[in-house]
Amino acid sequence: MEEFASAHQGSKGTGLASNPLHRYCADPDLVMIGDRWYLYCTEDGLPDWSSHAFYVYESRDLCHWTRRKILDLEQVPWWHGGQGAWAPCLLVRQGRCILYFVADGQIGQAVAPGPTGPFRAAREPFIARGDYDCLPIDPSIFVDDGDVPYLLWGNGRAYMARLSPDGLRLENDSVRSVVPDNFREAITVCRRGDIYYASWSENDTRDPNYQIRWSSAPSLDGPWTAPQVLIKADHAKGILATGHHCITCVPGRDDWIVAYHRFARDGQGDGCHREIVFAPLDFADDGAMVQVRPQVGSYWYPTRNPVTP
Fold first, then answer.
1. Family per UniProt (predicted)?
2. Omega prior to 118 cis, within 30 of 0
């Protein structure tokens, strides 16, 4: 287990140094359980995204983090040394934590009694290569009213399907697909009031102009509005390849946070050397998402008793 922190440069907001995790990481999934944030992500900094392990990062303020290993691909029965460990996401269901993840270009599933594991992987892929007309990567979770869970995934074509109440199976008759705008990958959905928001990444993660777009609708069946930019590169600030995000609402509050990755700003940044940062997400009076203007630093979520390094 490792503990580390970013230095404060202000009281809140974008008052943290760039790369608050102090590691190369990408593809974030941020969830709050109790009073703690848990971040699941791809371990980066290796050629061809070849990490073979997953870690969880735990924090109370998006600033001070504890890192724990939760699953090694050697523990995944159906992984035989192919492509690496990518893009995990978490669903809490019936007292258990379910991790959906990518290995060898397929989506797997693992279960644990709590958010820090230990996770035990299923014997077969949850979504195997060839099951649907897309590369099955980049899973994300959406839980609608009535506590109904959905899984989203895809590259080149986006898919969404309702999960069984225990989160362990796809309800195949609910699978739907679409290609929104210039969709590449990392489709996710959230809901605020009566409005549904879909957002996704365009271009390639190695492209400096990798970016996030969004659209909204009154239901999951649409009709969806014309896509708009949520986050894009700021070349003047040297902030490039802003993509593969997640959007999280603080439970019980109308406070929203977006986590995304970008080229690391340490001089080594590229499509395999990426950093995760956090930003507040605002909404206009008409419900539109307000475009996030990337900052050099990362957002610090204030707690009642913040710890000062």
1. Belongs to the glycosyl hydrolase 43 family.
2. yes
- CA-to-CA distance for 205 and 70, rounded, in angstroms? 25
Rounded distance between C-alpha atoms, residue 68 and residue 57, angstroms: 7
How confident is the prediction along the chain (309 residues), in pLDDT tens digits per residue?
554 444 333 334 455 778 999 999 999 999 999 999 999 999 999 999 999 999 999 999 999 999 999 999 999 999 999 999 999 999 999 999 999 999 999 999 999 999 999 999 999 999 999 999 999 999 999 999 999 999 999 999 999 999 999 999 999 899 999 999 999 999 999 999 999 999 999 999 999 999 999 999 999 999 999 999 999 999 999 999 999 999 999 999 999 999 999 999 999 999 999 999 999 999 999 999 999 999 999 998 876 443 332
Q: Is the overall model pTM greater than 0.85, yes or no? A: yes
Closest residue by Cα to residue 205 from 261, 138, 154: 261
Question: What whole-number distance in Å separates Cα of residue 72 and Cα of residue 80?
Answer: 12
Other Cβ atoms less than 10 A from the Cβ of 15: the count is: 18
Q: Which of these, 84, 85, 45, lies nearest to 270 by C-alpha position?
A: 45
- Hey, which residues does 283 pair with through a beta bridge? 289
Is the separation of the CB atoms in 34 and 46 below 8 Å? Answer: no
Round to whole Å and give the CA distance between 152 and 136: 10
Cα–Cα–Cα angle for 43, 61, 264, rounded to 5 degrees: 35
Geometric angle at alpha carbon 147, from 69 and 199, rounded to 5°: 70
Please give the Cα distance from 31 to 140 (Å, whole number).
12
